[in-house]
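Researcher: Let's continue the batch. This sequence belongs to Laccase, and it's 577 residues. Same format as the previous ones, please.
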Amino acid sequence: MTPCSLKLLLFVLTTLCLLIELALAKHAGITRRYKFDVKMQNVTRLCQSKSIVTVNGQFPGPTITAREGDRVIVNVVNHVQYNVSIHWHGVRQLRSGWADGPAYITQCPIQTGQSYVYNFTVTGQRGTLFWHAHISWLRVTVYGAIIILPKRGVPYPFPQPYKEVPIIFGEWWKADTETMISQALQTGGAPNISDAYTINGLPGPLYNCSAKDTLKLKVKPGKTYLLRLINAALNDELFFSIANHNLTVVEADAVYVKPFKTNIVLITPGQTTNVLLKTKKHHPNATFLVAARPYATGPAAFDNSTTSGILEYHNTSNKTKKINNLPLLRPSLPVFNDTTFATKFSNKLRSLANVKFPAKVPQTVDRRFFFTVGLGLNPCTNQNQTCQGPNNAMLAASVNNVSFVMPSTALLQAHFFNQSKRVYTTDFPTNPPFKFNYTGTPPNNSMVTSGTKVVVLPFNTKVELVMQDTSIIGAESHPLHLHGFNFFVVGQGFGNYNPNTDPAKFNLVDPAERNTVGVPSGGWVAIRFLADNPGVWFMHCHLEVHTSWGLKMAWIVLDGKRQNQKLQPPPSDLPKC
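Model: Same format as before. Here are the structure tokens for Laccase:
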């Protein structure tokens, strides 16, 4: 071989190696580091200042941006008087349950002056999620967006947007919410309703004193924008709309869906929805209200107000015409209890279920569960005084009539170190303790039982779970969130679930894949998931008041046989209780 041909061969081999490395690098994740300083910050809304818990002094908190396959490391330092923990809502946390975040479930909270490093890899996920505090009611102000971009060079399965905008809905109280929920849990009554809803932390012009605290969404004509909608409100499902504009839903809970057009989106607390907004071809000589208001089905009082922002078109041709002089058009939103719209909307959500993005719906089932979810009562514990719930009792909530009691040691720790004694029991009921007409006349006895009970599942169990709303105290839509998994919404209906006839109508082809689903008011929802993630996984209503009252439980998924099917040991800085 001549020296020239040898050099050429070396050059070709080097180039080939470089190309292989670049190809691998394109798909290999990088490590992204964040520092979260949890601290108090004075914020003024509705003409009133208050000190709120924030991350880095920001409200809403900072956005976490990563690509599919990236490792995310967040150092959370607690500078406030409250115990703190952060949940990365919707992130699968495959074998990294120690980083999931719900206090007393996967970790003891981070105490004042302490810190904890959350360390996880985003595996097989891309889209919009969010992070929030997961202890007491701190998530009222401690929340922010998680944006997971596809791997480099991988396009969206819809037109590439001109710009992407996170839209985070929140809820605002003038009062101190920690004091408020603490008092409500002592008296047994319902806590006060919120004073406003917010979009990106701003109430908008329909509230007193809030014209300056208004989101301005500035757009150009003839462009496509991706709006990343996140419902971080504490207790309310929301209808969302933009006046005179259609939206195309392309993703829900960080899973692509078959695109469909709508002028109204329904989004429950804990859910995220990506929509495409195609702006008008020419400047419309108007501004447009962007608005959200509640979908409420329960018997209790609720904040029946509307948060809003303004969609403004960039005016390039006629700069003299001021935005303020343009007419402001308003959207038409459904009435607060429009369950017909809610049902139609949720039925439109379907997985792409194609070769690139398959819907891996379990076609067979190993374990079936039937859970009633709803409200109930506890006896009054206040000696010498009346309680503020119905019949001088205390309001409660339960799953299969078990109102979950939070342990004082984290469940995951107790499970991992085989120290479950006096922490939890494994006898969570598979079915309600007794049958009744769940959506009809409620039974005379509305009292719940209490306990720290869990369900244990062997690794890779195929689970079917039917969740049934009850009419005890009052029928109500309950957005149920499952940690550690996505699930498929295979069926839903009204009235009592019929195990003989309803399964025939299940969609096992292209059901929506989610992490949070609304159990219909006076109805039921059926989900399926594969228990392929070892650890302890919280499941609870994402209406915070119901979680406080006990509408929560936990699943323990055991290790599999292989090394990559086992929960990793805890990090050395895991907080202590």
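Researcher: Any comment?
Model: Residues 222 and 279 are 5 Å apart (CA to CA).
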